[in-house]
Input
Amino acid sequence: MLRILLGEPPRKNSGVLAEAMDNMAKIAALLRKEMSMHEDRDHEFRKLEVWTRGLISSLDELEQSWFAAAFYRKLVIAGYMDDMSTMEQGEYARYVYFYKNGFIRVFSLLDKFGTVLNSLYDLNTSKVKAHFSYFTVLRQFHSLKEHSVLADQLENIKNNYREPLENLRKRRNAEIHYMNAEMQDDLWQRHQGLHDKIHLEDLDSHLEDLRQGLEMVCKSLSVAFRYSNEQWHKNR
Output
């Protein structure tokens, strides 16, 4: 959708994004087949199918947010806010909007993913923590030890992306709990010199964190739904 609005051709899924989308689509298809063949009295299959389709949509929206942020970043040339034209300020504002939308979506999607895993594998994470996150679900996976292969794979992926995830988490927390992340950068600079021009944050470094956050999400989804597909056929 955003590519069309930006005058770009539609996305062709490839790499880890395509793998994640395909593996989720396979599980959604299996759930629909199960519902058509057998009664789904407790609506558990319907719930999981709806949640899986929701994850597909959420991943699509996250990728679009990253793409749009990268698109507008290319239009920001000045290194200082005071040196920007009115038009460039608008491009920067659009970059900030989609970048923030992206890093908020990373953790929102992971938590939705955690909810699906919790239900799919009967982890009962709510007994450990009422309002749990994806990372709480990972700890629960390890403590139960029933699906240790999947748990280890997901843990390794998380650890491989520890630094970019931590950077994104800090900016997410600043955005949600304190003040706009870019305003915090401005405030810090004002403390260094009251009358100095405000240098822009490292846009390329921030975008790379978001790209890696997207990649981490794709790999985690792909691994989990591939494993779930294998388990489904093994148990049927």
In short: The CA atoms of residues 187 and 198 lie 9 Å apart. The longest helix spans residues 86-120. The chain is about 75% helix and 0% strand. Confidence is low (pLDDT under 50) at residues 187-195.
